[in-house]
């Protein structure tokens, strides 16, 4: 597998105030999150294939495999929970930035950090009670009430691990952006937790566009 | 409690806290302040339930479908063809946005998926032809809402189930208003761009030969479209299954044209997952908030208030429109429908309104909720597909379409036959 | 003697279907305040209105998030197959038998929920008979062979598979379009539930053999229950039992009404009538039902339920019906 350019993105240079360890951890978290999203995509494509085969069999043989819809539901839950961390690191969660853009940069940086705190609180609750869901299903060995009779703790555990991973990533981001905030390093806060600027996007889109064009020429 | 809830939400969203998290935290806050029961304990179960909801599985599939078509280069071709044909109109490609949304609405039961797909394909064209960015984005956000008015529609099915109204009749009732609304959207664009020609982008000079030749580029996307629609109406697949067939078709098409590459799939998947995570975080937060609102009796209090107004029918309708307009600013639409429809719809039917007609009114109000800030899922989807620039641009751009939609509600109130004619025709012909 | 002022929170069953609209809703919002002289009041919402799917209800009651709750037992079949014991496909051919079976087995459930889940069982009521809505000609049970049937529980799925049909799982909301476009040929649901959801518009044949019943439990979290004044508890238990009895009494009549209204019989009391072809079960159908139940449904269920569970079944329902489930 040839590794695409974003993976080789150099670690941020501003490892000034003892954050190099955190930066390294975050870089790894970014790689892992990206790989998790690819895996989620592979699972989604697999469920597409399964549904397609199921539909075709039902039409042609009059009898499908059954359960493809249920499995697609699990894949949906698992891939979503694992995509949370990726989306957060990519700062893809939409924020209503009408006021934000009118704030002085230092205040905006504080707000960015506050957003991470909000993420942390919400996902801490989600992880705490999401774990209960897995634990109880495991303790009772709950099965889905369908012909498939899936052991529910299996998809639920995979789903929960995605949320747990999101908690870890949020924790790392909190520390990294927090230390940058304390040191007045507004640029780093923006880099990790800010609202994406049009300029950043333009650069990425251009490179993606180039890749598409090159791909077509090959 | 209502003012406190609204103030809290405005503060959270105003602080630019991501909307899903803001809704979730509001739920936790209201639980702490007003509930005797430990409602937070339900957050895990509720999130798991909404994450496996089969009706929502279609959303990422349709987003993926759009990404694959885009990254395989088909979307570009389709859009170029549309540009050649349409750009003489005041507003050019923005009409193509509405047209594409209308077509796509016939395949997808979800507005979010419609906006995401058409947005993925069309947003790169803004800079290319120098369109007015806000209006262009607004046309995608608004056009996408047609996804739930033109059948198939998840929201119409939900209305049908909640009110025991015939889903086939609702589907028939949605068609004409959907087409009229699409026409009104185009009229809005044409009007805006006649007043301000600069908004309408650069016209594309084209010979008739080029135009006819470009039609070839429409074939592959139309093939996928026919696959999705055809499989639904031929009884081969449910709408969700049809979405999967569409993805399979798009991937197959890309492979057949030699454009399927691992790198391309990876990028399509990354884009899809980002959008899905963003949407599902909002669904999770909103599901929990809805649970808290229902448990603490807030929704009951609001709807009891509406019911208790005791106004004459016409005023009651106005009150309901205002009610959903305000509610729609702050709630995600699926939760909003599930909580309020079972109480509001019977009241309106008792007042003599036709349940099918009211269903279409409700869908129009839900469409409106999808594009009103601060919580408007279609706004967020367009913003997220766009990846950059401020949210403000999307909000400003969608405003003219909000007015158009309000006008459409007026039109439907004045001419109920718009919705009721088709169901009546098919009822008498024994279908 | 006056009851202490009490406000209750109730999560009812599916808010669009007859048991909720005709019984639960009026019971909690009108009867309870009326009978208690306004001292006890309640707020009720269907679990579907709360964004829940049902199976989480038992857990939420036991953790005190939900006070009073109602949900079909089939939803908890995944947690423990014993929840299917009284509602196996083909077990109870009429409402009288269904009630008998339910009453026989209630003590087992009471003990089970009381111990493990810390939930107090207040009563078990039922939906009208679960019957076949088909958008294809069907003359009897044997015709299910080769048909695609929407099922809503594992026991129904196994029943359909044993008949040679293929079971399809669909959300309740997806059934109407699926029947209309013939994605499925048949769907199983309560005769009245299917009428309420207007399934008669998209299907042609109503086969009225009761497959099963979809009994639902009325329960309360143990913690919430113990917080209530003993007088209020006695008041509620007494009246919930009355409501449960009413629902059972209505089930037979509603099954009849559902059949009449889907098929457009003159005796249908509602203004809108369906035009479905009525297909009544023959002796052969009843025999086949019993055969499939004893040879396929029961052994499969016994295989996934614990030894204790099978033994409780044999000692109660089994003895009554002359059945022995083998473990
Ligand atoms: Na649609
Ligand atoms: Na809104």
TrEMBL record, chain A:
<dbReference type="InterPro" id="IPR055348">
    <property type="entry name" value="DctQ"/>
</dbReference>
<protein>
    <recommendedName>
        <fullName>TRAP transporter small permease protein</fullName>
    </recommendedName>
</protein>
<comment type="function">
    <text>Part of the tripartite ATP-independent periplasmic (TRAP) transport system.</text>
</comment>
<feature type="domain" description="Tripartite ATP-independent periplasmic transporters DctQ component">
    <location>
        <begin position="48"/>
        <end position="174"/>
    </location>
</feature>
<keyword id="KW-0997">Cell inner membrane</keyword>
<keyword id="KW-0812">Transmembrane</keyword>
<feature type="transmembrane region" description="Helical">
    <location>
        <begin position="152"/>
        <end position="175"/>
    </location>
</feature>
<feature type="transmembrane region" description="Helical">
    <location>
        <begin position="110"/>
        <end position="131"/>
    </location>
</feature>
<dbReference type="InterPro" id="IPR007387">
    <property type="entry name" value="TRAP_DctQ"/>
</dbReference>
<feature type="transmembrane region" description="Helical">
    <location>
        <begin position="71"/>
        <end position="90"/>
    </location>
</feature>
<feature type="transmembrane region" description="Helical">
    <location>
        <begin position="35"/>
        <end position="57"/>
    </location>
</feature>
<comment type="similarity">
    <text>Belongs to the TRAP transporter small permease family.</text>
</comment>
<keyword id="KW-1133">Transmembrane helix</keyword>
<keyword id="KW-1003">Cell membrane</keyword>
<keyword id="KW-0472">Membrane</keyword>
<keyword id="KW-0813">Transport</keyword>
<comment type="subunit">
    <text>The complex comprises the extracytoplasmic solute receptor protein and the two transmembrane proteins.</text>
</comment>
<dbReference type="Pfam" id="PF04290">
    <property type="entry name" value="DctQ"/>
</dbReference>
UniProtKB/TrEMBL annotation, chain B:
<dbReference type="InterPro" id="IPR010656">
    <property type="entry name" value="DctM"/>
</dbReference>
<keyword id="KW-0997">Cell inner membrane</keyword>
<feature type="transmembrane region" description="Helical">
    <location>
        <begin position="135"/>
        <end position="158"/>
    </location>
</feature>
<feature type="transmembrane region" description="Helical">
    <location>
        <begin position="334"/>
        <end position="351"/>
    </location>
</feature>
<feature type="transmembrane region" description="Helical">
    <location>
        <begin position="393"/>
        <end position="415"/>
    </location>
</feature>
<feature type="transmembrane region" description="Helical">
    <location>
        <begin position="46"/>
        <end position="65"/>
    </location>
</feature>
<feature type="transmembrane region" description="Helical">
    <location>
        <begin position="77"/>
        <end position="96"/>
    </location>
</feature>
<keyword id="KW-1003">Cell membrane</keyword>
<feature type="domain" description="TRAP C4-dicarboxylate transport system permease DctM subunit">
    <location>
        <begin position="6"/>
        <end position="418"/>
    </location>
</feature>
<feature type="transmembrane region" description="Helical">
    <location>
        <begin position="215"/>
        <end position="236"/>
    </location>
</feature>
<feature type="transmembrane region" description="Helical">
    <location>
        <begin position="272"/>
        <end position="293"/>
    </location>
</feature>
<comment type="subunit">
    <text>The complex comprises the extracytoplasmic solute receptor protein and the two transmembrane proteins.</text>
</comment>
<keyword id="KW-1133">Transmembrane helix</keyword>
<keyword id="KW-0812">Transmembrane</keyword>
<feature type="transmembrane region" description="Helical">
    <location>
        <begin position="357"/>
        <end position="381"/>
    </location>
</feature>
<keyword id="KW-0813">Transport</keyword>
<comment type="similarity">
    <text>Belongs to the TRAP transporter large permease family.</text>
</comment>
<comment type="function">
    <text>Part of the tripartite ATP-independent periplasmic (TRAP) transport system.</text>
</comment>
<dbReference type="InterPro" id="IPR004681">
    <property type="entry name" value="TRAP_DctM"/>
</dbReference>
<feature type="transmembrane region" description="Helical">
    <location>
        <begin position="170"/>
        <end position="195"/>
    </location>
</feature>
<keyword id="KW-0472">Membrane</keyword>
<feature type="transmembrane region" description="Helical">
    <location>
        <begin position="305"/>
        <end position="327"/>
    </location>
</feature>
């Amino acid at each position: 597998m040839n590794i695409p350019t974003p993976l080789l993105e150099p670690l941020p240079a501003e490892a000034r105030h003892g954050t190099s360890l955190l930066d390294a951890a975050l870089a790894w978290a970014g790689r892992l999150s990206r790989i998790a999203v690819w895996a989620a995509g592979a699972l989604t494509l697999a469920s597409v294939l399964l549904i397609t085969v199921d539909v075709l069999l039902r039409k042609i043989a009059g009898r499908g495999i059954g359960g493809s819809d249920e499995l697609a539901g699990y894949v949906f839950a698992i891939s979503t929970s694992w995509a949370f961390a990726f989306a957060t690191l990519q700062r893809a969660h939409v924020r209503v930035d009408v006021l934000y853009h009118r704030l002085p940069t230092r205040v905006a940086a504080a707000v960015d950090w506050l957003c991470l705190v909000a993420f942390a609180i919400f996902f801490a609750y989600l992880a705490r009670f999401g774990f209960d869901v897995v634990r109880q299903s495991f303790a009772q060995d709950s099965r889905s009430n369908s012909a498939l009779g899936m052991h529910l703790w299996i998809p639920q555990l995979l789903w929960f691990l995605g949320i747990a991973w999101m908690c870890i990533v949020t924790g790392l981001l909190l520390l990294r952006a927090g230390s940058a905030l304390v040191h007045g390093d507004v640029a780093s806060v923006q880099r990790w937790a800010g609202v994406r600027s049009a300029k950043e996007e333009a650069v990425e889109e251009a490179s993606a566009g180039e890749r598409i064009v090159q791909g077509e020429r090959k | 409690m209502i003012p406190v809830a609204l103030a809290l939400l405005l503060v959270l969203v105003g602080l630019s806290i991501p909307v899903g998290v803001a809704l979730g935290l509001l739920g936790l806050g209201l639980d702490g302040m007003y509930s005797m029961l430990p409602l937070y304990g339900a957050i895990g179960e509720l999130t798991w339930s909404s994450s496996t909801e089969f009706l929502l599985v279609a959303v990422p599939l349709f987003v993926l479908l759009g990404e694959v078509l885009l990254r395989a280069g088909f979307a570009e071709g389709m859009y170029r063809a549309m540009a050649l044909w349409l750009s003489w109109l005041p507003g050019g490609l923005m009409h193509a946005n509405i047209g594409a949304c209308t077509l796509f609405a016939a395949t997808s039961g979800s507005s979010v998926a419609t906006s995401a797909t058409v947005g993925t394909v069309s947003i790169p064209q803004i800079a290319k032809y120098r369109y007015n960015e806000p209006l262009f984005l607004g046309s995608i956000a608004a056009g996408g809402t047609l996804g739930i008015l033109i059948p198939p529609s998840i929201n119409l099915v939900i209305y049908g189930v909640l009110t025991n109204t015939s889903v086939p009749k609702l589907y028939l009732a949605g068609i004409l208003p959907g087409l009229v609304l699409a026409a009104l959207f185009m009229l809005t664009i044409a009007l805006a761009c006649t007043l301000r020609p600069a908004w309408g982008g650069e016209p594309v000079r084209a010979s008739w030969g080029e135009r006819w030749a470009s039609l070839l580029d429409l074939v592959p996307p139309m093939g996928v479209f026919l696959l999705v629609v055809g499989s639904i109406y031929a009884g081969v697949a449910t709408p969700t299954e049809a979405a999967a067939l569409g993805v399979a078709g798009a991937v197959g098409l890309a492979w057949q044209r030699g454009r399927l590459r691992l790198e391309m799939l990876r990028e399509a998947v990354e884009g899809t997952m980002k959008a899905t995570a963003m949407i599902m975080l909002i669904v999770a937060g909103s599901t929990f908030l809805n649970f808290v609102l229902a448990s603490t009796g807030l929704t009951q209090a609001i709807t009891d208030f509406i019911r208790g107004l005791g106004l004459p029918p016409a005023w009651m309708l106005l009150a309901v429109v205002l009610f959903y307009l305000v509610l729609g600013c702050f709630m995600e639409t699926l939760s909003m429908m599930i909580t309020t429809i079972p109480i509001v719809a019977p009241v309106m039917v008792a007042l003599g309104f036709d349940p099918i007609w009211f269903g279409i009114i409700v869908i129009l109000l839900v469409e409106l909720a999808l594009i009103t800030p601060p919580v408007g899922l279609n706004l967020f989807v367009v913003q997220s597909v766009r990846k950059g620039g401020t949210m403000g641009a999307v909000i400003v751009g969608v405003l003219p379409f909000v007015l158009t939609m309000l006008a459409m509600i007026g039109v439907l109130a004045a001419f109920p036959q718009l919705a009721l004619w088709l169901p009546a025709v098919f009822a008498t012909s024994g279908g | 003697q006056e009851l202490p002022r009490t406000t209750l929170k109730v999560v009812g069953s599916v808010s669009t279907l007859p048991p909720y609209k005709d019984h639960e809703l009026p019971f909690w919002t009108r009867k309870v305040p009326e009978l208690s002289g306004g001292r006890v009041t309640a707020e009720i919402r269907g679990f579907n209105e709360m964004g829940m799917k049902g199976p989480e209800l038992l857990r939420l009651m036991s953790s005190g998030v939900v006070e009073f709750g109602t949900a079909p037992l089939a939803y908890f079949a995944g947690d423990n197959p014993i929840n299917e014991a009284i509602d196996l496909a083909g077990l109870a051919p009429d409402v009288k038998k269904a009630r008998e079976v339910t009453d026989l087995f209630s003590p087992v459930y009471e003990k089970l929920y009381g111990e493990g889940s810390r939930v107090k069982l207040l009563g078990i009521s039922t939906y009208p008979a679960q019957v076949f809505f088909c958008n294809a000609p069907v003359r009897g049970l044997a015709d299910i062979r080769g048909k695609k049937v929407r099922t809503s529980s594992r026991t129904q799925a196994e029943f359909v598979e044993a008949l040679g049909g293929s079971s399809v799982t669909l959300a309740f909301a997806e059934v109407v379009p699926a029947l209309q476009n013939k994605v499925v040929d048949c769907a199983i649901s309560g005769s009245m539930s299917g009428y309420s959801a207007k399934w008669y518009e998209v299907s042609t044949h109503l086969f009225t053999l009761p497959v099963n019943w979809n009994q639902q439990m009325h329960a309360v979290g143990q913690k919430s229950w113990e917080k209530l004044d003993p007088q209020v508890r006695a008041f509620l238990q007494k009246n919930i039992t009355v409501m449960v009895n009413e629902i059972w009494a209505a089930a037979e009549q509603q099954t009849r009404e559902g059949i009449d209204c889907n098929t457009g019989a003159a005796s249908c009391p509602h203004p809108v009538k369906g035009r479905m072809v009525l297909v009544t079960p023959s002796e052969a159908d009843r025999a086949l039902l019993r055969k499939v139940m004893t040879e396929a449904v029961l052994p499969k269920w016994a295989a996934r339920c614990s030894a204790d569970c099978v033994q409780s079944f044999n000692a109660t329902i089994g003895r009554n019906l002359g059945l022995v489930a083998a473990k």
